[in-house]
Amino acid sequence: MHALVNRLHNEDLAVVPTETQYALCALATADAAVEAVCRLKGRLGDHPLSAFFRHFDDLRRWGIRVPDHATALAERFWPGPMTLVLPAEGALARRLGSPKSVGVRVSPEPIIRRMLEKLDAPVVATSANPSGASMSVAQENRWLQSLAQVHEILWLRPARYVRKTPSTVVDCTGPVPRQLRAGAISVDDWKGALS
């Protein structure tokens, strides 16, 4: 954990396991680190990045507004595989690629929770693969191995790790939440939490 936190503090990148898939992480408060994530993924400026937060109560501290419907979803599904896009203003939202909103997630993964506790700052939470690419597990592993070797990125790789369905992404910036990406939590389940 010490090596991971030091690397992120130094604006380096890391690949960590989550409850869904591997995440390519960087300190979300560091411009150079966020730009490095975008370069490695081939991410264009019109595709904002999301961030991991330690818990729900941290959001307001970073200029993120939480509408009532988002609060209901967070209370039901966090920590867990749901990313909420919330209204936000300030440096964090601009740095992650959207001047008016930010995608946020609270993970139950112990590594991520301890990392966030020690950093006391949000961390970029994006899948550890090239943007828009459809890769098999073997192809993704080769890509991650290349990142670890060529770019000297720390890859925390458990002996046994099973990738699962990615997080469900729900946009809560408008009056009615809408799903942006299907994922581990079904539409019926998250809409049911709002009934």
Summarize the structure in words.
This protein has 195 residues and is an alpha/beta fold. The protein has a single domain, classed as Alpha-Beta Complex (DHBP synthase). Helix content is 33%, strand content 18%. It is built from seven helices and ten strands. The strands form two sheets. A six-stranded mixed β-sheet has the order 6-3-5-4-9-10. The longest helix is centred in the C-terminal third of the chain and has 14 residues. The radius of gyration is 16 Å and the shape is globular.
- Spans with pLDDT under 50 lasting ≥5 residues? none
Largest sheet: 6 strands, mixed
Tell me the number of helical segments per DSSP (H or I, 4 or more residues long): 7
Strand content: 15-25%
Give a quick precis of the structure.
The protein has helices spanning 2-9, 31-41, 68-77, 91-95, 110-119, 137-150, 187-192; strands at residues 14-17, 22-25, 50-52, 82-87, 101-105, 123-124, 126-127, 154-155, 168-171, 178-181. It is α/β, with parallel strands linked by helices and 195 residues long. The N and C termini lie far apart (41 Å).
What topology emerges from the helices and strands here?
Layout (H helix, E strand, L loop, with lengths): L1 H8 L4 E4 L4 E4 L5 H11 L8 E3 L15 H10 L4 E6 L3 H5 L5 E5 L4 H10 L3 E2 L1 E2 L9 H14 L3 E2 L12 E4 L6 E4 L5 H6 L3
Task: Considering the chains and any ligands shown, give keywords for the structure.
195 residues, alpha/beta, DHBP synthase, 10 strands, 18% strand
